[in-house]
Amino acid sequence: MTKMKKTSQICQSKLPDNTALKQQQLPAYRLQLSATGVLSGFFATGAFCLGVGIILILSAKSIKEIEIKYTKICANCAELREDAINFDKECTCSIPFYLSETMQGNVYLYYKLYGFYQNLYRYILSRSNSQLVGTDLKDVGNCAPFSKSHNGTPIAPCGAIANSIFNDTIILSYNLNSSIHMEVPMLRSGITWWTDKYVKFRNPSAINLSSAFTGTAKPPYWSKPVYELDLEDTENNGFLNDDFIVWMRTAAFPTFKKLYRRLNRVQYFIEGLPAGNYSFNITYNFPVTRFKGEKSVVLSTLTWSGGSSLFLGLAYTVTGAVTWLAAFSMMAIHLMLKEKRTLFIERFETERDRA
Amino acid sequence: MDCSLVRTLVHRYCAGEENCVDSRTIYVGHREPPPGAEAYIPQRHPDNRIVSSKYTFWNFIPKNLFEQFRRIANFYFLIIFLVQLIIDTPTSPVTSGLPLFFVITVTAIKQGYEDWLRHKADNAMNQCPVHFIQHGKLVRKQSRKLRVGDIVMVKEDETFPCDLIFLSSSRGDGTCHVTTASLDGESSHKTHYAVQDTKGFHTEEDIDGLHATIECEQPQPDLYKFVGRINVYSDRNDPVVRPLGSENLLLRGATLKNTEKIFGVAIYTGMETKMALNYQSKSQKRSAVEKSMNVFLIVYLCILVSKALINTVLKYVWQSEPFRDEPWYNHKTESERQRNLFLRAFTDFLAFMVLFNYIIPVSMYVTVEMQKFLGSYFITWDEDMFDEDTGEGPLVNTSDLNEELGQVEYVFTDKTGTLTENNMEFKECCIEGHVYVPHAVCNGQVLPDASGIDMIDSSPGAGAREREELFFRALCLCHTIQVKDDDDVDGPRKSPDSGKSCVYISSSPDEVALVEGIQRLGFTYLRLKENYMEILNRENGVERFELLEILSFDSVRRRMSVIVRSATGEIYLFCKGADSSIFPRVIEGKVDQIRSRVERNAVEGLRTLCVAYKRLIPEEYEGVCTLLQAAKVALQDREKKLAEAYEQIEKDLILLGATAVEDRLSADMQDHGLIIDGAALSLIMKPREDGSCGNYRELFLEICRNCSAVLCCRMAPLQKAQIVKLIKLSKEHPITLAIGDGANDVSMILEAHVGIGVIGKEGRQAARNSDYAIPKFKHLKKMLLVHGHLYYIRISELVQYFFYKNVCFIFPQFLYQFFCGFSQQTLYDTAYLTLYNISFTSLPILLYSLMEQHVSIDTLRRDPSLYRDIAKNALLRWRVFIYWTFLGVFDALVFFFGAYFMFENTTVTSNGQIFGNWTFGTLVFTVMVFTVTLKLALDTHYWTWINHFVIWGSLLFYVVFSLLWGGIIWPFLSYQRMYFVFIQMLSSGPAWLVIILLITVSLLPDVLKKVLCRQLWPSATEKVQTENQCLSVEQSTVFMLSQTSSSLSF
Question: Which residues cross the membrane (chain A) (predicted)?
Answer without folding.
Answer: 38-60, 321-337
